[in-house]
Design a protein that fits this description.
Length: about 210
């Protein structure tokens, strides 16, 4: 009676008089006990914070943070358009293409996913640092923020190439040397950007 909305559950009593209570995962999250939401934390139960509460509300509406309406609506997509032109071969990034990508709708405008890919936005990006022989020696550092996630990715690769890739002349040939495989670094950066939680105001850190 203290839980709202009412969860879907069943009670069964077996031959040994053992009662089994089964509670199904609900579709109408969050479920509140005396107006508060809780979660399991190891062996204890704790009240969730505001951020997790907001995520549960979105989950209950079958939405994600990226589906929310963007605060900025005067967005431009020159970087995204350049990439589409090179890879897909389109001549212009139209509103119809943005709708197909689910970055824009006539009713609500741009969503957060669109803002993440826009030329300029309000999101933290990547904090990348190149150390010397120890972490007290900083040879180079760049904070890339409020830019398209595609720009952040490319600038991270530029920093990597600056320190880990060089050319060596052997006889009459010039060979490209990679101290660390660029493919591995590229994959790590892509994973960090794709799987980050955009509703947390923090940079992806690369050292």
């Amino acid at each position: 009676d203290s839980i709202s909305p009412q969860p879907d559950y069943s009670l069964e009593i077996n031959k040994n008089s053992v009662i089994t209570l089964t509670i199904k995962e609900g579709l109408n999250k969050p479920y509140l006990y005396k107006s508060k939401a809780y979660k399991r934390n190891d062996t204890s139960t704790i009240e969730i914070d505001r951020l997790e509460f907001t995520r549960l509300i979105l989950e209950g509406k079958n939405m994600s943070y990226e589906n929310l309406i963007a605060e900025k609506q005067n967005l431009t997509f020159n970087v995204l358009e350049d990439n589409f032109m090179k890879i897909v071969g389109i001549k212009k990034l139209t509103k119809d293409i943005l709708k197909t990508l689910e970055l824009y709708s006539n009713k609500e405008g741009y969503n957060k996913a669109g803002e993440i890919l826009a030329d300029n936005n309000s999101f933290p990006g990547i904090d990348i640092v190149r150390f010397g022989s120890n972490i007290n020696i900083i040879l180079d550092r760049e904070i890339i923020e409020n830019k398209s996630v595609l720009t952040e990715y490319e600038k991270a690769l530029d920093m990597f190439r600056k320190y880990y890739i060089y050319e060596e002349i052997k006889g009459s040939r010039r060979e490209k040397i990679e101290n660390i495989p660029e493919k591995a670094f590229r994959e790590a950066v892509i994973n960090a950007l794709l799987h980050r939680t955009w509703d947390i105001n923090a940079h992806v850190r690369i050292a």
